Each structure stands twice: as structure tokens, then as C-alpha cells.
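ok trying again, last paste got cut off:
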Amino acid sequence: MLSPPKKEVLPQWDVQKIKQLPWPAQAKDHDAIFKDRCCFHRSNTEETLAWSDSVDTLLANKDGLVAFRKFLKSEFSEENVEFWLACEDFKKTKSSAKITAKAQKIYSDFIEADAPKEINIDFQTRNHISQNISEPTLSCFDDAQRLIYSLMAKDSFPRFLRSKEYKELAKKQDNRNEKRWLPFL
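nice, full thing came through this time. structure:
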């Protein structure tokens, strides 16, 4: 009975080529990139382990975001990632009527005192947003979003990487990857 070969590391030029592609291509077209080069495709294990590179990598990956949200929920701090996502969506808004409505929603959900998902930001930032919410701009939450991103990057993200959940997920993906070995044709 043949045993699967040890995991191979892709040549450096392949990794660089992937990094140069626009983000959606990195995530969606990895099979096409490696087609006819070898029998190994970018595994879920590599993707899961790549989450540890940065908060950006984690937040940009659909499965990573789901796992991170689940972790934050278990720590009763999911409002941070929810606020960050709401701000990202808000920045893409084109209609001025929608800008006002979305800004008010974000403000009432996350910023105002006793909001249902109130985020932990300093008085000065909260006050600045409160004073300008009547005429919101696409950048009106930028300072608060930076604070929350920093909090996630320095606090929640490292705890997530040390968490039992992340370690189990990485191990589970590694076990699946070993079972998906395909012989050369």
C-alpha cells in the first residue's frame, strides 16, 4: 500500500505569482493556478494556517471570518467585528440617502450610549462622531473603526490563534488534507 508523499512546498515563484493576483483570484482560482503543475492544490490546512499571518488575512477569508466571529461570540465581544464589517459595508455606499440611513443605524447599534452592541471606544472619538452624525460622510466612522481594528489585532486575534477552537480547526483541516492525497497520473 502506497503512503502519501510528504507535503511539498511550492516553488517561490508560484507563491509570488499568487500574491500578485487580485485578492478574489487568490481565494477562488487557486485550482486554476496550479492546474497541470502538480497533484496538490492549496489545501484548507494552508488556508487555515494562513489566517495566522494577519488580521487582514483572517477577515478577508470567508471561513476565517466565520471562525473568528464564532470565537468572539464565545468571548462576548462579537460587536467589534460586527462594527468593523458594518463600517466596511458603509464605505461602499453610493447613495447619499443610504449614507444617512446606514450611518444612523451604525450609530444607534454601536456608538451611542447604551447601544445594543456598544463598542468600547474613547470619549473623544465617540463625542466627535456624535457631533457629526447629523451630516455623515463615508469617513465619519474611520477613527472608531481604526480603534476597533487595533483592538482586534492586538487583543482578540492573538487570543483566537491560541484558542482551542483554532488549533482544533487547523488539526482537523490537516487530517482532511492527508486523506485527500491523489497519486500522480
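cool. The CA atoms of residues 16 and 181 lie 24 Å apart. The chain has eleven helices and no strands.
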